Amino acid sequence: MSDTDALRLADYPGxxxxxxxxxxxxxAGLDDQEFLRDEKSQDAVIRNFEILGxxxxxxxxxxxxxxxxxxxVPWALMYTMRNRVAHGYFNLETAxxxxxxxxxxxxx
Length: 108
Fold this sequence. Notes:
Elements: H1 3-27, H2 32-37, H3 39-62, H4 64-69, H5 75-86, H6 92-101
Helix pairs in contact: 1-3, 3-5
């Protein structure tokens, strides 16, 4: 692992937590219909799903010792959600509803 990789590992958890926070803020106060009419919010949520999923995938792939030490974090689920939203495997409304139903009690 290079020094750059070690520095990136220090960044990934912050990227994940920031993306989670942004998704929550972007959908706060919107019902499903308002969210579906608001393309900017949809785009912002999709982008943050991409960020958290890519960061989670990098941790799992390149820093597996860290992922194993934090096995309570759903690394694979975050990447799967990213793929489903980014590639349209299911609708965004369903993805957001499932995401908001998740508990995030873990610390990174």
